[in-house]
Inverse folding.
């Protein structure tokens, strides 16, 4: 943890801006010796940044690593095309050009990406194109690590088009992982693939994946992180103020620590005052103003994308009920909040059980004895003021 991180808000971090996570990296490299990984974590914890660090460190672990996102892809052929663009090396190109790809032409344009020229039959032949690529990867002398971000977003696009297409793709993808033991995969996204699979009865298509979890910083690591940010930006936070910033954040994920630190920087720039506990409190209040809603609207919007209706509306009811108090609400109180929308008691309990599982997995709520409260005090306060 000797890096000098800069203050990032929103964008993934690389190089010296990446902080800590040594234990998580060690576990993932160990698990990759035998398994493919499903990287699960609540939102904005730093999954993408961790994947980029794995990519950077892959040569030391005897892998050729490729990272890409499929958030903007909506068809199976688009997925296979994206893989070709990022994965195919010059030696693989010659092998693929000799394979029976039919009416598909592969070209390498200088040092740039692979180009696929396809005829009208390619849309129906995406599995054949994907299989040829997987076999070419398996034949390479070095092991390959493929880090794919936002896979659940792509799966949701297929589900909206036709649930049968989603199952067909995921079945193919599972078989592809199994037929190439020298190719390793790390799959992640801002929506949990496990949640999407459970919601649409697709869990059998991902049951070969080993789950890797990523959580918030431990309090001491979070304090060290804030201290490092302060040193990088010569902000002059003393030890007490660094500790207080972490405590005020409540749930010390990198995103919220960076957000609060950014507002402290802005206040110090404006006032030229030495930052103290009052500065932290003032920055907290700035974050909760309407002008900062872009930092938090995402948490509400993702419910609609992930759960659809009416589940997203039910989740909002549960969260609104839990937001009324720092200590959250009892299960019976949350059930009462759902009663108008789900009047049948048996259906309501099943719906609540599912929602609480999702909302805890995705980082909204945490169970504390017999109550469910917001994991992040900052998110709870924003929800209470601007949603509830």
């Amino acid at each position: 943890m000797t890096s000098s991180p800069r203050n990032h808000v929103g964008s993934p971090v690389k190089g010296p801006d990446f902080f800590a996570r040594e234990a998580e990296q060690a576990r993932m490299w160990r698990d990759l010796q035998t398994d493919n990984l499903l990287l699960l974590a609540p939102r904005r914890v730093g999954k993408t940044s961790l994947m980029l660090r794995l990519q950077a460190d892959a040569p030391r672990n005897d892998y050729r690593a490729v990272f890409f996102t499929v958030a903007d892809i909506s068809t199976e052929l688009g997925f296979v095309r994206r893989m070709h663009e990022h994965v195919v090396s010059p030696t693989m190109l010659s092998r693929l050009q000799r394979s029976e790809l039919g009416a598909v032409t592969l070209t390498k344009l200088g040092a740039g990406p692979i180009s696929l020229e396809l005829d009208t039959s390619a849309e129906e032949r995406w599995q054949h194109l994907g299989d040829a690529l997987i076999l070419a990867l398996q034949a390479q002398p070095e092991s390959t690590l493929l880090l794919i971000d936002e896979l659940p977003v792509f799966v949701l696009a297929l589900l909206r088009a036709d649930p049968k297409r989603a199952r067909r793709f995921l079945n193919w993808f599972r078989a592809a992982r199994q037929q190439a033991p020298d190719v390793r995969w790390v799959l992640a996204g801002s929506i949990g693939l496990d949640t999407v699979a459970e919601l649409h009865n697709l869990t059998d298509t991902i049951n070969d994946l080993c789950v890797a979890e990523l959580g918030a910083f431990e309090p001491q690591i979070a304090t060290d992180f804030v201290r490092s940010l302060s040193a990088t930006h010569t902000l002059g936070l003393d030890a007490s103020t660094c500790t207080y910033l972490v405590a005020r954040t409540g749930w010390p994920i990198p995103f919220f620590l960076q957000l609060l630190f950014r507002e402290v920087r802005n206040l110090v720039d404006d006032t030229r005052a030495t930052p103290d506990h009052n500065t932290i409190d003032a920055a907290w209040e700035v974050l909760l103003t309407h002008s900062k809603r872009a930092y938090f609207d995402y948490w509400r919007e993702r419910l609609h994308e992930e759960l659809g209706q009416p589940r997203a509306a039910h989740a909002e009811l549960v969260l609104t009920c839990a937001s009324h108090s720092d200590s959250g609400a009892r299960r019976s109180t949350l059930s009462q909040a759902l009663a108008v929308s789900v009047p049948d008691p048996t259906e309501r309990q099943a719906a609540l059980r599912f929602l609480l599982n999702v909302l805890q997995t995705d980082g909204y709520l945490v169970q504390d004895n017999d109550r469910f409260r917001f994991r992040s005090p900052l998110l709870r306060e924003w929800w209470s003021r601007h949603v509830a």
